[in-house]
Specification:
It comes from bacterium (Candidatus Blackallbacteria) CG17_big_fil_post_rev_8_21_14_2_50_48_46. This is Glycosyltransferase subfamily 4-like N-terminal domain-containing protein. The chain is α/β, with parallel strands linked by helices. It contains eleven helices and 14 strands. Strands 3-4-2-1-5-6-7-8 form an eight-stranded mixed beta sheet. A six-stranded parallel beta sheet has the order 11-10-9-12-13-14, with helices on both faces. The protein is globular and about 65 Å long. It starts with a strand and ends with a helix. About 35% of the residues are buried.
Length: about 350
Amino acid sequence: MRILVLVQAYPSKAKPYNQAYVHARVLTYLRQGWHVDILSFACQESYLHEGVRVLPESALKSVSQVYDVWVSHAPNLRNHLRLILSCPQKWKKLVWVIHGHEVLIKQNYYPAPYPWLPQPSGLKRLSDRLYDEFKVWFLARCLRHWIPRNKIKLIFVSAWMKQAFLESVPLPAEMLKGVSVIIPNPAHPIFLNTEWSEPTPPQADFVTLRPLDEPKYAVDQVYQLAKNYPELKFDLYGQGRFFEFHPPLPNLRWFNRYCTQEEIPGILAQYRAALMPTRLDAQGVMVCEMASWGMPVLTSDLPICREMLKDFPRVSFFATPDNCDLPGFLNRELPPRGNALRFAPEETILQEIAWIARNN
């Protein structure tokens, strides 16, 4: 089977972590004997990455063969839909992998910007809203055309994501029957092949890995919990301007950097638990990896978190920083690890392969 995978960006030597979750899938596709090319809208020249051929959009004109399937990750209007509609002779069928904002009216889901950061103008908010309204209308129109003709299938990374899609895109739910499936993103293999053990002594009680300035990652709640529990120690890794507007706390250390994929297990291994609040997620891959690894995790009490993490007894949930017993969480008897293979390739990528291959 010939597959073309459409992505906004793909790993390279210079940027090895660009949508790395897609690369893990592609390597598994290749092991199935499929011929796979990548079309990256961010690249300007063709290159090879770990045996995978990555093409710029301009190179597609010179590809004479027709692909059996185009697999589109987070299909946006500006690039993915434009190319799909302009090259119908290049593909036989489509698979869309729905990850998040590409199918949402964002103002209905995303939290407002932090008040201490620059605010979008009324005109910017209006233009974003109008674009999103047009986007979901156009997506629905395409799907109404392709679904009855057996031209497209959809993969949602969570049941929450599918429900949010149905709330945003004007499409009857019954149209998705038989053409959609829920398959979460896989965990990185290192979180499946090894297991967390409690450090002695720990660097701190809690660790958080989050961008600082996006309110959906709720760093303000980490800060508030550190204020509420001065006897506990917190480490926070991430970049942003949060601490330009908030005074330092003696029990909260900030590391002004992002962590590479290779670094993360070694960093996490130094802590008693992870503190990973969120206000919005379609899956929360990093928290799924932490839970799969057996690390105790405290996260937000949201439907998506419950859906993804229900099989992991070491994960607990809190509603607000003022209703969260951190010492009780740390000092409880450690429960079993839970379903460590919940996000393994056998439960995710191989299901995806079977879904793509069906009727193709």
